[in-house]
Amino acid sequence: MSSTQQVFAAGPPISVQGSRWPRGYGQLHGADLRWAIAFVLPYAAVFFVFVVYPFGYALWMAGRPALYAELIANRSYLTAVVNTLLFVGIGVNVKMFLALLLSGFFLRPRWWIKAALAVYVLPWLIAAAQACVSFHWMLQQEGLVNGVFSALFGFDGLMWFNDRWLGLGWNIAVYIWKWMPFWTLIFIAARMRIPRDIYDSAEVDGAIGIRRFVHVTFPLLANLYLLCTLLSTLWAIGDFTTVYLVSGGGPASSTDVLATLGFHYAFDFAKPALGVAAAMSALPVLIPIVILLMRKLQTSEVEL
User: Fold this and answer.
1) Assigned superfamily of 75-297
2) Where do the H-state alpha helices sit in 238-271?
3) Single pTM value for the model
């Protein structure tokens, strides 16, 4: 048996049989009940007005099957579905994998790495709208990016938003740049909770470098990595700001995702029901992810 293998001995479950709660404990009566209702009612009202009613109204608007037939017949919708899959699939997985790797780099005990971490988190601290608008203008024909290409390589650069794949690529790149620092901090905090003794034992067994990451670090962070990926996927599917402010969905709606396509249907083409239907069409993907996320969050053990 290697020194990294640990045996946790658990005793039999402890049954606590002390004095029982008095009869009626936890039941409110009279003034206590009225005060409880008074405190809960405002929160319930806010939840109903801002969550239950909008979602229910959206389901009612998007409840006609003819809307989905119209969506499927529209080429822009099928393009938006493909763009959403690429945006979420590439953006989330690349972002999470790089964040996991960089979390190990930023834990190195060197002063310049600590300073680099402070700079690295700045994109996350900047408001999403300002960051995306900045990239939009930097990628214009006379913007910063083309200016750098002109100064370094002697050509005028490209029209980044006149091609679907270039525009979609920049949407994904800006999304990764904006949100990768947040998940890196999550993984840094998780790595710091791994006991040093485990790494010392693994080093005795010869697990150093990449082997230590593969056989020690990643297995310990696997559940957290999965949870973060599922949560990030939920957020990415509903991401509106990045695509709308970086590429604007152009050219000719070829870089739209479902969130921005629904906005264009609702406000540019005056078809709010079709716009809601476009957004609601992501529910068959969102609901299984939410169920899986909730199941993973259910814990059978409590760490004290």
Assistant:
1) MetI-like (1.10.3720.10)
2) 241-246, 258-263
3) 0.83
| DSSP calls for 3-57 | TT-------PPPP---PPPPTTTT---HHHHHHHHHHHHHHHHHHIIIIIHHHHH
pLDDT tens digits, residue range 214-240? 888 888 999 999 999 999 999 999 999
Let me know: does 188 contact 158? Beta carbons within 8 Å. Answer: no
Opening angle at CA 150, ends 144 and 153, nearest 5: 130
Two tokens, residue 173: 């790149």
State the Cα–Cα distance between residues 239 and 274, nearest whole angstrom.
19
Listed residue (176, 177, 120, 129) closest to 137, CA to CA:
129
Question: Residues near 161 by Cβ (< 8 Å), separated by ≥ 6?
Answer: 139, 167, 170, 247, 248, 250, 251, 255
Write out the two tokens for 119: 């700079």
Which residues neighbour 265 within 8 Å (Cβ) at sequence distance 6 or greater? 271, 272, 274, 275, 278
Measured distance CA(189)–CA(197) in Å, rounded: 17
Q: CATH 1.10.3720.10 occupies which residues in the chain?
A: 75-297
pLDDT tens digits for range 70-120: 999 999 999 999 999 999 999 999 999 999 999 999 998 899 999 999 999
At residue 250, what are phi and psi to the nearest 5 degrees? -80, 170
